[in-house]
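ok so for the tutorial part 2 we go from a plain amino acid sequence to predicted structure tokens. step 1 is just haveing the sequence, like this:
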Amino acid sequence: MMGGDKNQDQDAREIPEGPAGDSAFLAALEQQAQAWAAQDLRRIRRVLESAAGPWIEVAGKGRCLSFLSNDYLGLAADPVLRRAIAEGAMAWGAGSGASALISGHLRCHAEAERRLADFVGTPAALLFITGYMANLAVVASLVQGEQDVVFSDRLNHASLIDGCRLSRARIVTYAHGDLVDLATQLAATPARRRLIVSDAVFSMDGDVADLAGLLALAEAYDALLVIDDAHGFGVLGPEGRGALAAAGLRSERLVMMGTLGKGGGLSGAFVAASALVIEHLIQHGRTYVFSTSPAPAVAAAVSTALDLIVAGNWRRERLAELRQALMEGSQVWSRPVAEGTTPIVPVVVGEADATMRLAARLAESRVLLAGIRPPTVPAGTARLRISLSAGHVVEDVEQLCSVGRAAGI
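step 2 — the prediction. this is what the tokens look like for a chain of 409 residues:
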């Protein structure tokens, strides 16, 4: 109402003013921000002025050699995949218009789910906007309440940890990769339902879980096994079909989450499992039920991405070659490089401030590595994370090794 008496408009009630001076709430946020920055934990976004790739244009910095991206196969800027995205947008529109259970499940979504299930060898699959949302849906819907127990690897990704919390189930954490500890916990913990959750490839360490051992324990204790294969999909296994395929595992107890935004070169994620589990997620996975469906252009490009992954043996061979070149070239560094078989190569420094100083020195030479600090990794284990891509060449790795030596890695 306009032009009326103020008291009449607001029923003679005034909005009470807060305490005089600055807001205590905002002051507390400012204090937290200052403490965060003082511990070298503040994160700063870069603005890129180019597509993803091994060489990127960074606003204010110019052309830089990047070992930051999870685009392991170098598909994010592939012209064939770009064309598939463009054609998908022209055919299906810019947005899906609704959640999948309303009107947002288009033919391109259904076809993408069928192709993904066939690709990883499961009866069914379900698309999600992000891997984070997929993991929340899986864990928080499969177990519910304190009668159920989730057994979680200590170094699992934050999305699995948050899924455990949202489930309100009892959470039992076992030592990283320690199947003896897990077996002990399983035997000692009564539960209505048991769920074991683990990364396949641990994103900050690059090591691979003992998937066969985890599945054996799931079978022995009547548990389901949720595997986050975000960093193995497209990279590991025959034709890039993932860590479970590399281990030769299939079981109705397995629930796999894979992302399309890393080895797949796209965005989004999927869950692959039995038809029963997928139907359960459709009905009870809140981040699926209450989210608008992924962009149809992405769904329409999934088949092209899978074809490129299958045809990408040379890309996976390139990654192995680059990893070997890094192991050899980094021998001039004072800090060891972890052995492994994945494109993720951590160099543990220790303290956050020392890690960020090293990253800054490298950046001065226009070589970019991620400085990883708590709470992403445990206190005292801050590190530089090297992420290799099939778009790199050996000369890029040699440049990293040379600049890294000069910077004091």
